[in-house]
Amino acid sequence: GMFIAKDYEMALEAPGCEPGAEYWNATARFKDDISDVFPYLNANWKNAIYSPGANQITYQTEDRAVALKSHEITISNLPDRD
User: Fold this and answer.
1) Model pLDDT for residues 2-58, shown as the tens digit of each residue
2) Measured between alpha carbons, how far is 46 from 49 in angstroms, rounded to an integer?
3) Are 34 and 61 in contact, with CB atoms under 8 Å apart?
4) Helix %, strand %, coil % of the chain (to 5)
5) For the chain, what are the domain ranges?
């Protein structure tokens, strides 16, 4: 089945090091701990880097990075605010 997280809030942030950058980071923060799915994602995502000690998994696509922690997901390099 598909993992659906209900209670979350979304934040869009311009990376602090580059004011005026065209790229944005989107972070979803969850009330629930989502780390139970990390081993599953690690098994299914070819380029995933899973750090059980840090309780996080990161994944790189051609043009963006996704970082999952126990209560948040951050996607970096979104082209604009849409």
Assistant:
1) 555 667 788 877 766 656 667 788 999 999 999 999 999 999 988 899 999 999 999
2) 9
3) no
4) 10, 40, 50
5) 22-78
